[in-house]
Amino acid sequence: MNRILETQKSLEKRFRGFLYSLDPERTVTLRELLTNSGQARERLQSPWLQKDILEEGLQSVEQYFNKQERKGAIEGYSGLPLIFLQRPDTVEDQKEFQTRTEDEFFRTRYAQYDPQYLYLHTQTNFFPKLLGTWRARKRHIQTLGSFTSLGQNSWRKKPCISGYYLPDFPDILNVCPQVATEYMLRVLIHDLGHGFFPYVASGDESLHNIRMIYARNKQKQTREDPWEDCVASECTDPYFFLEAKRYVESVEEIPLAVKEIMLPKFKSWYLSSKHTARWKRIWGIEQDMRLEEKRVCVQRTIEARLD
Length: 307
Known about the structure:
This protein is of the alpha/beta class.
């Protein structure tokens, strides 16, 4: 993954003033996480992060990038965002959560849940601002959110900076460290892909999502625990959406609070008529096809199409 690391190092130099303004006690860059993993995980208080999974996943993505780069008509490595991560503060999280519960809709939807559920990729929002001042060197991401320097609809205009909080995902998700690392990796490679490839229309976001999971190139591994299997497959199996109904049904009766937050999103993303109606247009899938035929359509589209 030399080219990803080289690009991140170059961006760190370009935006060194920005990085200098961030709270040094809770911030690491993606490059630091990969090249100085022990110190980075200590600063993030995330001993659960699996360095080997991060390295393997990003190496696979880089290989996919290199293959696609030869096709042209892409932004390429010059479009990658600078990525940094920060450790969340549980006191700040609770305070922000209490403020948000003053809104009746938010209170009805989320009041009974852990505030850090809002860091899940099914829930989080990106904010184009940081809290704190440059001079104090204490700047940090908007509490209970993620950061982008340009906003979600402006990826292609200039180099982008993306920042994420890294909570205790094994605890929040109720999964093992390996699955939690895959969960975080899914977010990172998704947004690296947004920088590498041309702008994707919102209606085709599922194409980009599945393409980047395909780029992860993770060998299918069925886990004994149905919930872990569902979470891991959604992060690593590009064909998950074809069998999403089976996965959702396998976990619907499991008494987990985090499941109550995530499953409605899975149903909306993968089981809704709006989603399945796109299958023919995006993938060339007919409803009466066998599963294996559908998988072939997905693979063929990913390999052949650049949007």
